[in-house]
Amino acid sequence: MSAVIELTGITKRFPGVIANDNVNLVVERGEIHAICGENGAGKSTLMKILYGMQQADEGTMKVDGEVVAFNSPTDAIDAGIGMVHQHFMLADQLTVLENVVLGAEPVRAGGAINFKEAKAHLSAVGADYGLTIDPDDMVETLEVGERQRVEIIKVLYRGAQILILDEPTAVLVPQEVEALFENMRELKAGGATILFIDHKLDEVLEISDSITILRQGKTVASMKNDGVTASDLAELMVGSELPSPETAESTVTDHVALSLRDVTVVDDDDRSVVENINLTIHKGEILGIAGVEGNGQAELVDAIIGTASVSKGVVELLGTDITSMSVRKRRESGIAYVPEDRHREGLMLEAPLWENAALGHQTQKPYGSRWFMNRAGTRAQTELIREQFDVRTPNVDVSAHALSGGNQQKLIIGRELTSAPSLLLAAHPTRGIDVGAQAAVWEQIRNARKAGLATLLISADLDELIGLSDTIVVMLRGRMVARLSPSEVTPRDLGAYMTGAATQDTSSPDTSSPDTSSPDTAGR
Amino acid sequence: MRKILLAAAAPVGAFILTLIISSITLWAFGSNPFSAYGDMLGHAAKLETQVDILNRATPLYLSAVAAAIGFRMNLFNIGVEGQYLFAYLIAAQVGSMFALPQLLHIPLIMITAMAVGGAYAGIAGVLKVTRGVNEVISTIMLNAIAISGVIAWLQQSWQSDQDQFTSTTLGTDPIDDSGLFPDINGLLEIFTRDIAQGKQLTGLLLVAVAVGLGYHFLLTRMRFGFDLRASGLNPFAARAGGIPPKRMVVAAMFLSGAIAGLIGMVELADTAKFPPDPIKGLGFAGIAVALLGRNNPFAMVLSALLFAFLDVSAGILQNTQAATKEIVNIMQGIVLLAAVIAYGVSKRVQEREEARFTAEALAEIDPIGADS
Ligand SMILES: Nc1ncnc2c1ncn2[C@@H]1O[C@H](COP(=O)(O)OP(=O)(O)OP(=O)(O)O)[C@@H](O)[C@H]1O
Ligand SMILES: [Mg+2]
């Protein structure tokens, strides 16, 4: 084997931080190489440099032994390097084929796109690497795992031999992760080299050949994956033990915080995306919702926060009917919200952190009032969040886009949990957060729960879901298909319910004690 | 110190770039750039010219604030032009219908102007939230309706002498003196010699200053201003953060139009009626002023003054034959372009400088890591 990528002495500085400090990285041809490290360690920055999206201040890059300098991703693509970002960049209204060829269209004489040739090329690429996808499917109909496959094919289509995947598993459920890993093995067998970032250490150990660990912008270790354990990695990354999201004793009370009765939500085409949902969350209870992304969980949360309207049914918060209340009134009555996509619904990327901290709570103390903003109060509160939630930033005046993904997430969690909410709607609260900080977030949620917070938790991380929840319900195609007790369910069982491989009778609405029929009794 | 230098670099750079390109243009047109600049500056050194510049900058600034309020929310209110002319006409008519003490008469006219401007812009806002009509299209259409439709018609039907349809009698009846915003020559003359040539410094200058301060206060201190900026920065996050998107669109359009309503008041204080041929183009010029001033209340003061200076210079160039007067419009275009380039460059330099600075500072304190 020979080094296909060799980065030496890469340094990249941003205002207030050194994102990469003399980083060295050697990747062998045909291996799967994991990059691990805390939030803000500089992983994404390093990958963006390799992909030509950012330029290093110092250091040299060699690809196939030749020194290269990339001014833009186009240069990197020409050198056979492709990157799949954590946030997908596909156009929903186009087909898979159109998305794949977008920007690299084979043109026929006269300027028309040669779709026939493109399709042939696409299926050739797919066959080479064992990736199957129907080129004529509309992207909007695809599930997350499939979209990711499209992104990967898109990169391969452009002739990439070296793939960079930034936190590819963060948005996937375990079955999809398995499928992704299968694809990655195929790619490797086909001769590709893969670099990927991941915060889940068991996944890293399962799939990677080599592991490089960054810490505070420096390479602290680079090793072959053999005989390494998860706790070794955790130790190297954050200097502490591996945490687990074990819930302490139950704190569920009799006081109902949130109650949904027969809630139905329809989409623009009048199809119901959430159908007749009945559920109750008590003070001090964490209710987990399991489901493959796109099965109505997001719309259910939208209906509770008020950004989607309920077409039928009633939503009650602490006994008050809030079904047609404005989002702001709901916020003021104590609903906190951690959105699933932090860039879309969580942050103003161009605004400073302290203004971001106020977003959603700007009418409430200490941020402001009905008429005025309290700048001093907002800044002080942001400092508090920064300290309490370990948001790594030079100061609170930097804009949100300058924070690493995980630190952005911590800021959002902090702003929502410090608002003294009575109900927390948390979609993937620890998505993109490193193992150390994850434990801290779980701890914060548990503390709030002890103090009476009701939480609706959505997570693709089934260990997190099982570990934190007091009750788990499974959603499939907009319906509640199972209600399970976390103490008696394994991630594998959950997965079976989520994909519809196992079913449970839930005709009795909202039984307060979880039904615990075994998952392998049924299965259509 | 270094920071201040860097911050000043962009405007200074834009200025130098403008000078260079303008000089080349002048030269290419067969004029001597130095004599043209000399004429312009010599002219502007006169107190009376300065009064002209302030009188021109006042409505430009109001227009820029009106546009900027929309821009902050990613709303493109192209309709300031129609809004101010319409407001100007109605306010002049309402003002001419009453005889009131000054303290009531002036506010009545101004409030009418703001209400009409706001309501007219508000139509575009309502169309956007109820029918999904893009505000650029609706405000352009509202401009056409106002300017060549409603105003042309009302101007005729409200004219004093109905029997005599001549272009000079068009417009409204004159307003009593009690309704005319007084000039502030006295205020300026505290610092200078007496203003000659019968020039009057518009009292609306004080209103423009108040509007600028109000705009600054709104954006930085008021919750509504926060909501406004949040909606512009990320509408989805704003909505999830409890900011009602539809209400914000209507409110922002109304506010923008209300400020636009004040633009015509500057001329009204002088003409005392909606004249046959009212001043036009201030709405579109305001967009350029807002762009150059990057929607910032203080930077827009400078850009309004610069645009006013160039506008006022057109006359003198014409007189001295140093260059054609159209050159000032070309220069206004060049300054906008130069500003875009200079700001872009300076942003990159600034980031790089800051990063290097940090690195040096960190290397001294803590040789191990980048974190605090
Ligand atoms: N555009 C930018 N401007 C300023 N600072 C930045 C910028 N991008 C990244 N940084 C800083 O560089 C450091 C490294 O960020 P990076 O995104 O590489 O971290 P990461 O290892 O990917 O973290 P995460 O696991 O949270 O995604 C962080 O401290 C971040 O604040
Ligand atoms: Mg990252």
Which features does this protein show?
heterodimer, A: 524 residues, alpha/beta, Rossmann fold, 3 domains, six-stranded mixed sheet, 17 helices, 20 strands, 31% helix, disordered C terminus, B: 372 residues, mainly alpha, ABC transporter involved in vitamin B12 uptake, BtuC, 2 domains, 14 helices, 74% helix, globular, binds adenosine-5'-triphosphate, binds magnesium ion
Mean pLDDT of chain B: 85
User: Which word captures the global form of chain B?
Assistant: globular
Q: N- to C-terminal separation of chain A?
A: 48 Å
Total number of β-strand segments of chain A? Answer: 20
| Beta-strand segment tally of chain B | 0
Annotated CATH topology of the largest domain in chain B: ABC transporter involved in vitamin B12 uptake, BtuC
End-to-end gap of chain B:
25 Å
Residue stretches of chain B low in confidence (pLDDT < 50, at least 5 long) are: 365-372
- The helix tally of chain A amounts to 17
The fraction of residues assigned to DSSP E strands of chain A is: 15-25%
Total of domains of chain A: 3
Read across the widest sheet of chain A, the strand sequence of neighbours is 6-7-8-3-9-10
Highest-level CATH class of the largest domain in chain B: Mainly Alpha
Ions and ligands: adenosine-5'-triphosphate, magnesium ion
Task: Report on the biggest sheet of chain A.
Answer: 6 strands, mixed
The 3D shape of chain A can be described as globular
Summarize the structure.
With 524 residues, chain A is of the alpha/beta class. Chain A is 31% helix and 24% strand.
Describe the structure in your own words:
The complex is a heterodimer of chains A (524) and B (372). Chain A has three domains: 236 residues, 3-Layer(aba) Sandwich (Rossmann fold), CATH 3.40.50.300; 188 residues, 3-Layer(aba) Sandwich (Rossmann fold), CATH 3.40.50.300; 77 residues, no CATH class. Helix content of chain A is 31%, strand content 24%. Chain A is built from 17 helices and 20 strands. Chain A starts with a strand and ends in a 26-residue tail after the last helix. Chain B folds into two domains: 80 residues; 277 residues, ABC transporter involved in vitamin B12 uptake, BtuC (Orthogonal Bundle), CATH 1.10.3470. Chain B is built from 14 helices and no strands. In chain B, helix 3 packs across helix 13, helix 4 packs antiparallel against helix 5 and helix 13 packs antiparallel against helix 14. The longest helix of chain B has 39 residues. Chain B is globular, with a radius of gyration of 23 Å. Chain B starts with a helix and ends in a 7-residue tail after the last helix. At the A-B interface, strand 2, helix 10 and helix 11 of A face helix 9, helix 10 and helix 14 of B. Bound molecules: adenosine-5'-triphosphate and magnesium ion (MG). The site of magnesium ion has 4 residues of chain A, from helix 1.
